[in-house]
Design a protein that fits this description.
Layout: H1 9-19, E1 25-26, E2 41-42, H2 50-68
Antiparallel strand pairs: 1-2
């Protein structure tokens, strides 16, 4: 990743995801040792139909590609 360590991506991706209309929770609050969650994100999709989940994942992919392209 350009200028971003793999343990920082969960925070760096947030504004890019928001621009695509997708939100997620960084993984750190979901681990007793928060540093273990630095490589994870938490997605809430329990109340969404499959079509919305697929669209959200596509949007998150766009955000990740934008972040990685620098």
């Amino acid at each position: 990743l350009p200028e971003i360590g793999r343990h920082e991506i969960h925070l760096a991706l947030l504004p890019f995801a928001a621009q695509e209309g997708v939100e997620y929770a960084p993984g750190t609050p979901f681990f007793l040792d928060g540093s273990r969650g630095e490589s994870y994100v938490r997605l809430n999709f329990a109340s969404q139909p499959p079509e919305a989940i697929e669209q959200g994942m596509q949007r998150l992919g766009v955000a990740l590609r934008r972040l990685m392209s620098g």
